[in-house]
């Protein structure tokens, strides 16, 4: 079964600093990969997705993620964070065939300090 | 597009009562998912439907939980009887095709006292 690991439970960065959130997946083949963001009291919103092709994908709100097959990673990055980026971020994996379950990581809570 | 609509947003009930959570997926979406989110267990998939048919309910914790999708525009998740450990945020999500992303509702925060 596929799994997703987000090793950082909580990250604090200064406003304007760069950000990288880590995500590692375990799956036999190349899965479909997603990053979602959850603001307090809200549902999850899709930031970006990777299905195939270019390993660097661009998303909304200035986020990007890079798929690295050799490292089984799909890390999320942003060059300069804004206070409004404070939220919970979830990486998710979906197998490209077979069952249709989207498996989520445990999430990384991002705090922005002035 | 109104997005996925869930009701109620908040539900407080006493142990032993029946609770019904409701979801209206995005029009045209063929898949509907129910997730539960807690601090301890994170996001758990409870059940999902394809074209109104339950496909996988292996995540439903107990027989106290049941879900239905009588038509393409409506689904319910029922807990009977409810217990304090059912307290969580329940999310409904839908998607249009097999490999398209999930669209989430804003969730129902359930508190069972």
What are the key terms here?
heterodimer; A: 114 residues; mainly beta; six-stranded mixed β-sheet; four-stranded antiparallel β-sheet; 12 strands; B: 113 residues; seven-stranded mixed β-sheet; 11 strands; 0% helix; globular
Q: What fraction of the residues of chain A are assigned to beta strands by DSSP?
A: over 45%
Low-pLDDT segments, ≥5 res of chain B: none
Radius of gyration of chain B: 13 Å
Oligomerization status of the protein chains: heterodimer
Number of strands of chain A: 12
Q: Compute the separation of the termini of chain A in Å.
A: 41 Å
* Most extensive interface: A-B, 23 and 21 residues
Unreliable stretches covering 5 or more consecutive residues of chain A: none
Strand content of chain B: over 45%
| Element pattern of chain A in H and E | EEEEEEEEEEEE
Helix proportion of chain A: under 10%
SSE sequence of chain B, one letter per element: EEEEEEEEEEE
* SSE class of chain B: mainly beta
Task: Average the pLDDT over all residues of chain A and give the rounded result.
Answer: 91
- Gross morphology of chain B is globular
> What does the radius of gyration of chain A come to?
14 Å
Per the principal axes of the C-alpha atoms, what is the gross shape of chain A?
A: globular
Structure description:
The complex is a heterodimer of chains A (114) and B (113). By secondary structure, chain A is mostly beta strands. In chain A, 0% of the residues lie in helices and 51% in strands. In chain A, a hairpin with an 8-residue loop joins strand 10 and strand 11. Chain A starts with a strand and ends with a strand. Chain A has strands at residues 3-5, 10-14, 19-21, 24-26, 32-38, 44-50, 56-58, 64-68, 73-78, 87-94, 103-104, 108-113. By secondary structure, chain B is an all-beta fold. In chain B, 0% of the residues lie in helices and 55% in strands. Chain B is built from no helices and 11 strands. Chain B has strands at residues 5-7, 10-13, 19-24, 31-38, 42-50, 53-56, 65-71, 74-79, 88-95, 103-104, 108-112. In chain B, strands 2, 4, 5, 6, 9, 10 and 11 form a 7-stranded mixed beta sheet that branches. A 4-stranded antiparallel beta sheet of chain B has the order 1-3-8-7, with no helix packed on it. In chain B, a hairpin with a 2-residue loop joins strand 5 (42-50) and strand 6 (53-56). Chain A binds chain B through residues 32, 34, 36, 41-46, 49, 51, 90, 94, 96, 99-107, and chain B through 4, 31, 33, 42-43, 45, 48, 50, 55-56, 91, 93, 98-99, 101-107.
């Amino acid at each position: 079964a596929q799994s997703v690991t987000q090793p950082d439970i909580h990250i604090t960065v200064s406003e304007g600093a760069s950000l990288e959130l880590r995500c590692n997946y375990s799956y036999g083949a190349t899965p479909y990969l997603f990053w979602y963001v959850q603001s307090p009291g809200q549902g999850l919103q899709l930031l970006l997705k990777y299905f195939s092709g270019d390993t660097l994908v661009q998303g909304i709100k200035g986020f990007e993620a890079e798929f690295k097959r050799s490292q089984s990673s799909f890390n999320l990055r942003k060059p300069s964070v804004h206070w409004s980026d404070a939220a919970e971020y979830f990486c998710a994996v979906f197998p490209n065939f077979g069952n249709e379950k989207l498996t989520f990581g445990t999430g990384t809570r991002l705090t922005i300090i002035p | 597009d109104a997005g996925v609509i869930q009701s109620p947003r908040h539900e407080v009930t006493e142990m032993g009562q029946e609770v019904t959570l409701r979801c209206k997926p995005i029009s045209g979406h063929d898949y509907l998912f129910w997730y539960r989110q807690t601090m301890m267990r994170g996001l758990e998939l409870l059940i999902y439907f394809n074209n109104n048919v339950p496909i996988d309910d292996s995540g439903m914790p107990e027989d106290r939980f049941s879900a239905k999708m009588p038509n393409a525009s409506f689904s319910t998740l029922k807990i009977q009887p409810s217990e304090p450990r059912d307290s969580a945020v329940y999310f409904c999500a839908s998607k249009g095709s097999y490999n398209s992303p999930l669209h989430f509702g804003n969730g129902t925060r359930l508190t069972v006292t």
